[in-house]
Each structure stands twice: as structure tokens, then as C-alpha cells.
Amino acid sequence: MREITLTVNGKHHTLALDPETPLLFVLNDELGLCGPRFGCGMAQCGACTVIMRGQVVRSCVMPVSAVGQDEVTTLEGLGTPEKPHPIQQAFIEEGAAQCGFCLSGVILTAKAVLDVKPDASDQAIRDALGGVLCRCFTHTRMLRAIRKYAEARRA
Amino acid sequence: MTQSRREFLKSCGALIVGFSAGSLSLLSAEGQGPFGTHPSHIDPEKLDSWLAVGADGMITAYTGKCDFGQGIFTAQSQLVAEELCVPISRVKLIQCDTSVCPDQGTTSGSQSTPTNFNSESLALAAATAREALLGLAAVKLGEPVAQLTVADGIITSNLGRHVRYEELIGNKRFNVPLSATAKRRAAPDWTVLGKPIPSLDRTGLMTGKFEFVHHVRIPGMLHGRVVRPPEMGATLVHVDEQSVRSVPGLVKVVVRKNFVGVVAETQHQAGLAARKLAVQWNPGPELPPQKNFFDHLQKQPAHDVLSVDSEDIEARLAGASSVIRAKYTYPYQMHGSVGASCAVAEVKPESVTVWSATQSVYPTRSIVAKLLNEPIDKVRVIYVRGSGCYGLNGADAVSFDAAILSQAVGRPVRLQFSRQDEMMWENFGSACAVEHRAALARDGRIVAWDREDWVASMGNRPGYDQPGNVITGMLLGYAPELPGPRSAKPPTGKLRNQSNAVPSYFAGCIGGSCGGDGTVRSERALTHTVRSPFFTGPLRSPLRIQNTFANECFMDELCVHAKADPVGFRLQHLQNSRVIGVLKAAATAASWQARSSPRADISRAQTVSGCGIACVAYEGDNGYAALVAEVDVDLQTGTVRPKRFVIALDCGPVSNPDGLRNQTEGGILQGMSRALVEEVTWDNRRVTSVDWETYNSLHLDYEMPTVETVFVTPANVPATGAGETAITVTPAAIGNAIFGATGARLRTLPFTPERVKAALLSAQSAERA
User: Fold this and answer.
1) Theoretical Cys-Cys bridge with B344: which of B35, B41, B216, B679, CB 3.0 to 4.6 Å?
2) How far is CA B419 from CA B227, B275, B705, in A?
3) Minimal CA–CA distance to B730: which of B589, B579, B618, B566?
């Protein structure tokens, strides 16, 4: 057990934890966050995705001790039901979900790539999503929502 | 309505984290559900079992059909709003909680819409409630019902007097039975149902606020993991508890027969303990080699069922100038939910509660009671959505496992499966082989068609009393359901085509009554169900997708022999107006060009394009679809790239066109993934496709084809299922499109580049011969 300080979605937390605990378990079990989810525990599907330093990270395989001072942003950190982030708004408008379990991977990965490269091509966006799995196969609506957000962002 | 009841309702709809255990225990302590019904028996004949009007005018409805991403929560809310003439925001739907919802069995088989949206169950309850309220208003206002109109939950008389629902019955029981004569509101008058209302879970999902079963947290809750055997049939020799002595937070190693699990204070500790626990197993039997699996399958003793048999098939085939034969094979495939399954159970001396993503809350309640040796009335199963399941994924097994662990430690336990727990032990979609024989008349018409299929089967949904049908039960010593060898009896009664074993072109005649959709009268469909080495169970479009792949591709082969257009040839052999309707609609929407098959102008360029069509009457009468697929095939690499799908769908009146489009697109693209890449693999000992490196699925980087959806809606037909219709025709349409593009016939799924190249080679050598 070690005292670990985390900054998640703008809030600071100090927790006594086994430093090897995967960040995902801390987000779910200690902080009560529901955005990142356990999909595979092997960084193969993206359901546990969070953003750190502008990069997507698979929180299921990152020990909490490796987070350091970097702020962690989860799906909840983008916007709220009352005031969704524009990419969340685009997903809401397009109805781009079925079960919705995979959404952290889809939305955060797309946001991260467009933050770095606002004019990313469809191909570049898809390439970035290569490690993200949606088994309901809502691919078409998701890409449409991402494109809508990208276009609005550029305008 | 009592205070506790109202609190309970509030908490049911609220977020689950911080879910007050107080209100739950209060309810179970009372031993009574709402409206005087016993928790174990909520009478579906009583209106109060389905619906309540609160003092605030909110309509609370109780359903036994739950939403796992297919949109039925929104659609059922629309239905209730429509029948009660209130805005959808005034409807609160409680789904699948055994203490308050009627037992509607399992949410599966595209049965929610036919069951709850026609003239029984929830739809009838809502219509009964509206009529009951009008009756109460007539008394209160002193005017006949005929003089009353209703809008927005307010009943108004011709004279302008009005009364609100809640003034008539707020917080009180109706105390009336469902009225079989209650009239549904007519589809042309609908203002909420039938409209593309945005799914109600959307904002919560997109902003990360939606709580899945994975997020249920109970005060005092521990975390569990299971330790499964290394292979099917392995039995436990020894568990070395010393091996995990050093794991901090370990609460207990739980062993029951061949079931092994660990419980610890945190998830991380439970995972550590599960990995470290030294367990010795006796090996299971060797597995039949995957390479020749279908030959093995076809040699097993079988449970035989004849769906139809005109008894002249051998004579007709013997008399034909040539018999066309083909064998199709379909692999085991996985549900492969993105989220590994999870459940939370709290076993206390006075009650058992399981929060579960099962499709079957009442059957799960029954099995949990059996496994824990507790009276069924003590057990409550509350549905909380999990990752999309597409059928029987790990949700049932994980719920049983969680209950066993909680009982063993006397505290609430949350159990999270690992990826391997999920993929190695789920009930796979059955592997199947289908053999066809057919003969054509001189004019090209089909005169005789015989088809036999072999289905691998072990286990199934556990139902109310068969825990051995999934892994947990088997580990605890219960046997799975297995096909008992039996020879076929002559078919009797009405044609049953639940599994789409019978092609749409069969007349389906049994004892002079022809229940099929087609014209072929010399016909036989024989199914051999044989023992599977792995668990099997319903996977979206169970057996329907396998059979339709084989039937619709073979129909395409018959077109080739008849040198006929695939659409025209199908129409020539169909007589069901709804199958004909979707076939024509799809062909028109896709601008289908009539052609002989294969078309004459197949190019030998690097990449060739072509299209194919397939159609189905899902389960015989539960939805109709025809799909045109357009694909590119790279002749060098054997890669198939679907470019465009056009589907015509007839499921009767549509509850929510946006939801239906979402389901249809998802179904087609999931079907495409299954057609192109998905296959369970194994070696001589165990399943080897146990994660996303070893089991293929098309990820989000795959460039998806366009999907165009056309709804065909005949007047005055009942609502049918729609969630499985589109996927059913997808592999066949793609296979036929590959043929359309290349002249090469693929008879084995998935259509891997190697198989495509092999089929191209064999088509070329046939051409030269």
C-alpha cells in the first residue's frame, strides 16, 4: 500500500493503494467513474480508454503508480449530460451507439487524434481507431458522428 | 402505493452506485411485491402487474423484456406513452426485476416486439389502462365514454370538462384484469410510437454516466474471480491454498466440485489470487481435429428431425437427368461481448439478490435458487444492462458464479470474468454442415430439393431447471442438455421453420397442408443434431444464419444451372407475398440488373466487382428481409471488400424507425464480420481463440460499406421481430456477390483470402475443363 495522488477530470485525489493496481480499477472502484470499462484487461479492445497528455491510454494495463503527475481524463471529463462536449453532442445527434460499452475507446480516441490533427482524413481517423472494438457494429454511425464533429471543429 | 414502494421505484430508475440497500431490504422484508402480488408470482392477467399511475401523473410500466442495446427500452416507453396518450417523458419503464416485473421468460429470439407490441402483454395492458381510465372518467364527469377524448394524460368531455389520470387513480390500483378486447390505438393515429424518438439512453451513454452491471456497487462488497479448468472435461485434483497465502486482501478460496474461485477485498487482489492459485486438474478428453471437424460431425450419432418430407425425393432425383449437389459448412462463432461478463450477488440469511445482465431474469432466479439450495421466493434477480450480448454470452454463468462466491463468504461479491473466462467458456454459435441435392426440369424450374443439416449442440440456455447447460452448472456436477440419438419421425401438423432449415422455395406440405413460402413440392429437410465438444447456445440468429447461408447460396447455384437471373429465378419459386415484397423492393432499391448467372462479362482485372442477393422469412413468419450485397474481390490477394448493402425489411408496423435502422445496420455489419473473419479455433486440447488477437472481429479501422435500408410495411399485419432478420441474410448475400464478381463459389465461412483464392482456382479449372 502506498499513498498515491491522482488528478482525474480536474479533481485531485489522494488514495492508499497497491501501486500495481491497474488505473482502471482505481477509476471504477475508488472514484466511482463509469466511463472507462473493463473489456479485456489486455489493451486489445479500448473499452477502458482514458486520455493522458493528449494521448489515449489503456487504463486496464497501466499501473496506477505510472500515472505520476499527469492528469487523467475519462469520458465523464469531456462533458456532462447537461453540457456535453461537442464530440459527445455529435454522437448524441447521430445516435451512434447500441449497447454503448465501447464508447470510451471510440470517443476519446477520435477526440485525441483530432486534437492533434484537426484536418485528419477519414483514413487517418480510422487508422487511429484500429485498436478499438465495437461488437454491435455501430461503425457507420460512429464515423459519421466523428466526421460531423471534425467538420464543426474546423468551421 | 406505499411509501416504500415509491422510494423503491425512484431508486430503480436512479443510478446504481449508492443504490440504497435499505429500500431493497425493506421490500424483501415485506415479502410482498406491489399490488398485493407475491414477488415470485406477478400475475400477468392483472393490469396492476404491468402498469401504475402515480399521484404526480407519471406512468410506471413493468416489462419482462429488457434492453441490451437493441433499443427496446425506448420502444416500449413509446408504446406505453402512445397507448396512454402521454408524452414519453411521463413514462417510467422498469425492466426485468423479478420482484416487480411479470415473468416474460427470456428477452431473445426477436420475440420482444411480437410479444409486447401486438395485442397481448404490455401493449394490451397499456390499452386496457387507457380504456379503464376513460371508464373512470365517464363516471366522474357523468358523461358517456363516447363523448370523451384524451390527450396529454387529461380526459376531456365534449362539454369541456376535464379530469387528469392522477385525479382518477393516482397511487391507487386499477384492480381489473387485462381486457382481451381493449383496442390498440390505430397505427395511422400514432404520435409517439412509430416515430424516430432518440433512444433514451443516449446522453448517459455518450457522457459516461450510464451505469452497466459492471458498475453496481453494494456496501461491503468484495471482488471475485473464477479459476476455470484448462480444457473442457478437465476435473479437479487439488487446490493448493498455500499458493495464495501471501496475496493481501484474500478472503477465501472457494471450491465446490470442479468449481474454483477466489474472493478478495479488491479487484486487483482477486486477480492476483486467481493468477497465483496453484490448481491441479485431470485432463479432459482429446478434441476432434479442427481440420476435419465437419467429417467428424457428420459421423456422430444424431437426433434426427424431419421438418418436411414429401417422400418422393429419392425417386424424383433418380429420375432427373442430373443432380446438383453441394455441401456448405459454417464454423463455431462467438458472441464475444466487448465487456467480459460481470455480476454482483448478495447472499444473506434472509434474501438473495443478484444484479445481472442476463436476458432471463426469472430463469436465472430459478437456477440461482437451485445452485444455492435456497427457496426460490428468497431470490431476486435485477436486470442491469451489460455489454451487448447478441444471445447467450457469459452473463448467466457469471451470475451463478457470483451467487456461489457470495454464499461462500456471506458478503456481497462482484465477479468480473477475464477475457479468457468469457471466450473460452461461452456457449458458441453452433457449427453446422448442410448438404443439398436438387434437380431442375428442362424449363429450368426446380423439381426436387433435398437438404440435410448437421448441427453441433451441447448445452443451451439454462432455462428454469438446467444449470448444466452453461459452464458453471457443469463444474458443479449438473449435466448439459445433449442430443439423444433418435431416428426421424414423419413430420406432422403445421410446418415449423423456427430455424429456417426449410428454404423459402419449399412448398412445405405436411399432410396436404402447405405452410412453406415456395413452390417446390418434392422436398425434404432433415436435421441431425449431434453432440458438440464445446458448449453451444443461441447466438444472434441461431441456426437461422447458418441455414440461410447454405440455402440461399445453394439457390444461387441452382440459378447458375438454370442460367437464370438470381432475382427472377427466386421470384419464380416463391409464393409468399411478403418474401416477394422484400425481394422486389431490395432489387429495385439496388437498381438490380437482371442477368444470367454467372454474368458473362467477368473481368480478369486485379479487382473485380459484383453483386448478389439473398432473402429470408425469418423463423418462417417473424420478419422478412432481402439483401443485395455489392463487393470488390482482389483476385491476387483473395481479399473481399463489401462496398454497398441495400436491404428491404418487412417487420410490420415499425416502433421506432431510427432504432430499427440502427439495429439493421449493426446486424448487417456484424453479419459481415462473421462472414469474413470470425471463427472459433482449437487445438487437440482446448479452444485457442480466447482474446482479440486470436478471435477476429472487424475493428473500427475497417472501412465499412454503405448500408441503405428500405422498410416495406404492408397494412394490417402484426409487428414482428427485426433484430435478427438483417444479419440472417448477410453471409449468403456476400457469398453470392463473390460469385457474381468472380464466378467462384464459397461454401465455407468465413470467406478468408485463402478460401477465396482456392475457390478462384477451382472455378478457373472448372472453366478450362
Assistant:
1) B216
2) 12, 13, 29
3) B618
b/e sequence B46-64, b meaning 16+ C-beta within 10 Å: bbbbbbbbbeebbbbbbbb
Give the phi and the psi of residue B157 in degrees, each rounded to 5. -95, 165
Would you state the pLDDT for residue B17?
28
Amino acid in the structure at residue B530: V
Is B604 within a domain?
yes
- Residue B338 sits at the chain A interface (C-beta within 8 Å): yes
DSSP label at residue B31: T
The whole model's pTM is what? 0.95
Q: Cβ of A35 under 8 Å from any chain B Cβ?
A: yes
Let me know whether B404 and B434 are in one domain.
Answer: no
Asked if A31 reaches chain B (Cβ–Cβ under 8 Å), the answer is no
* A137·B670 Cβ contact <8 A: yes
Q: Domain A86-154 falls in which CATH fold? A: DNA polymerase; domain 1 (1.10.150)
Cell 491441479, residue located: B280
Q: What is the pLDDT of residues B258-317, one digit of tens each?
A: 999 999 999 999 999 999 999 999 999 999 999 999 999 999 999 999 999 999 999 999
Final residue in a domain of this structure, among B360, B390, B425: B425
Q: Is the domain of B57 the same as that of B45? A: yes
Nearest C-alpha neighbor of B198 from the set A104, A144, A102, A97: A97
All cell numbers assigned to B507: 412448398
Q: Which residues of A touch B276 (CB under 8 A)?
A: none
**What strands, in cross-sheet order, belong to the sheet with B413-416?**
B250-256, B259-264, B222-226, B413-416, B342-347, B352-356, B379-383
Task: State whether residue A121 sits within 8 Å of chain B by CB.
Answer: no
Report the gap between the CA of A111 and the closest CA in chain B (Å). Answer: 13
Chain B, residues 458-487, CB within 8 A of chain A, namely: none
Element (H, E) at B731: helix B725-742
Q: Please state the domain extents for chain A.
A: 2-78, 86-154
* Domain hosting residue B268, numbered range: 213-284+335-425
Closest CA to A94 of A134, A49, A139, A125: A139
Kindly report the length of chain B. Answer: 769
Does residue B185 belong to any structural domain of this protein?
yes
DSSP string, B25-38: HHHHHHT--GGG-B
- CATH assignment at residue B271: 3.30.365.10
CATH superfamily placement of domain A2-78: Beta-grasp domain (3.10.20.30)
The yes/no answer to whether this complex scores an ipTM above 0.90 is: yes
